[in-house]
Write a structure and sequence with these properties.
3 strands; 13% strand; alpha+beta; 5 helices; three-stranded antiparallel β-sheet
């Protein structure tokens, strides 16, 4: 006759196994059987619950209450390190920068060689604290400050920065994928010597 079970009683059982697989159910039976659980069902649950740790030696904690087992993995430091080394590295995306001085993209004020501009209206003859003009973006020409995160040119430049980091291509390829919405400049501006 099986022993009576208290439905509120909680028992913890710890098992060492290799993630994603379970040995013979006969090895589980001595620990699981007396608690009224099926070794085959628990073995299948352990295999499913440890699939992310496939091939690594781990400890599995079974929280048993009312003939139900909740499975959780208790990894060792070694298995955490090995698992982290197996995962592919995350792509580093360098921070996207906009010069706070000239308001152009891709460099900082420390190395800026341009004249400072007002963040609000884009003029070079005064600073923002004194500006009474309406906002006008220096990048797209619309009615918002040049540092706005909703600026079309800011979004375009940020997309180019992300694309460059993720795809490891030259700077010119994303320029064609993310074309500028600004009108093309006059060709006369680019005539150097005649």
């Amino acid at each position: 006759m099986p022993p009576k079970f208290d439905p509120t009683e909680v028992k913890y059982v710890y098992l060492r196994c290799v993630g994603g697989e379970v040995g013979a159910t006969s090895s589980l039976a001595p620990k699981i059987g007396p608690l009224g659980l099926s070794p085959k069902k628990i073995g299948d649950d352990i295999a499913k619950g440890t699939a992310d740790w496939k091939g690594l030696k781990i400890t599995v904690q079974l929280k048993i209450q009312n003939r139900q087992a909740a499975i959780s993995v208790v990894p060792s430091a070694a298995s955490l390190i090995i698992r982290a080394l197996k995962e592919p590295p995350q792509t580093y995306i360098p921070p996207f920068i906009q010069c706070p001085s000239c308001l152009r993209f891709g460099h900082s004020a420390k190395i800026c060689k341009s004249k400072p501009r007002c963040r609000k209206c884009g003029n070079e003859d005064h600073i923002r604290d004194e500006c009474q003009n309406t906002p006008k973006c220096t990048s797209c020409g619309k009615d918002h400050m040049a540092t706005s995160k909703t600026c079309e040119e800011y979004i375009r430049q940020k997309s180019i920065n992300d694309y460059l980091a993720r795809n490891q291509v030259s700077f010119f390829e994303p320029q064609q994928i993310f074309p500028s919405k600004k009108p093309a400049p006059n060709q006369e501006q680019f005539l150097y010597w005649s």
